[in-house]
Write a structure and sequence with these properties.
Elements (H helix, E strand, L loop, with lengths): L10 H5 L3 H4 L6 H14 L9 H15 L3 H6 L2 H8 L5 H18 L2 H18 L2 H17 L3 H18 L2 H17 L3 H18 L2 H21 L17 H24 L5 H11 L3 H21 L28 H17 L2 H21 L2
Helix pairs in contact: 6-7, 7-8, 7-9, 8-9, 9-10, 9-11, 10-11, 11-12, 12-13, 13-14, 13-15, 14-15, 15-16, 17-18
Amino acid sequence: MPARPAPCHQTVAWKAGHKRECAQGQGTAAATQIRRAALEAARPAPQKGLTKELRSLVTRLNELRAAADWRGIAALTEALGLARDVRGVDPGLSCGIHSILGNAYQSLGDFSQAIKCHTQRLEIAKEVGDRAGEGRAYGGLGNAHGSLGDFSQAIKCHTQRLEIAKEVGDRAGEGSAYGNVGTCHMHLNEYVKAVAYFEAQHVMAISLKLAHDQSDAALNMGVALTLDVRAGRPGPSTGADEAPGAPSHSSASACLDDRVREGAKWLQAALDGGHRFAKLHLAHLTFYAGQEDAALAHLKEHLSWRVQRGRDTYAGCGQTRGKDTPMLTCSGCRVARFCSADHTKRCLEKSRIGRESGDGAAQGYLRRAQQVARGCQRRCGA
């Protein structure tokens, strides 16, 4: 049995059985505990009917999944064969393996392969009558189709996910599906539909007391309304050109002002919830509304935060000032360089580990540090 999580803002979702959504929590020790428990609960367990080699393979797959080593999972070519071999013996295990593989390919950008895995996962879930599993498979398919730019197909998949979530009582899954459908409509420039789905996502997040999801929904609504304002900006018009019965310029302007106020309200809510980039969207919104002075003020605040963040964060490894050792800066341009000889050595070690494991993110540690150093030299002539 997974360990009971410490009380936190996601306890309601956990009690409702939505461990995957709880695993998305971040920033606190309680959320970390929830994430570990959720991963433990979701992993496919080695079955007694499997051979020793197959049990070992399942254990290895679980370890890679817990470490979010998607490259390692994708490189484990035996996993796909294992999923096929155990399908008749243990459909649940086969479904879990296809799920892990599909998520791994999605994270690596191999969306076509992700679709194949999630399709197999869907077929198995239908065979065994696992409606909740069907819904999750549809969600994975929707994400993959959306990543390929096929938003119409993604909407169909996410809508299926939404209907099944309502049927089985998966309220957190329902909220997630609302957000995904809204995002697809936003990509199709259907902003009114997008806002309606984001509102439903926000209501669901409030009922589940998921503060982070509330902020996400608020940001989504603010962005959709900003794009709607941009699309609806009136062009230069003379009264003689207006068609009979068409809305007057004043009524259209009033409608635009309402959308600007609504968008600003939601972006401010997202900002209060910790989404600092909402300030940049506020700058866009006010600019599209013709409020250049307000847009400039928002943009200055956003740039000030970015500059401060740049000074407080070491570009080579993402370390924040004060966590390890004071950062050194270039005397000419004040850009963070190498923290210390010891820290540079550890960056080199992380880079070496990255090369051995094929982790592209880890391989970038030293490269980013070197780029920062070269930038300082160019700016200061050092």
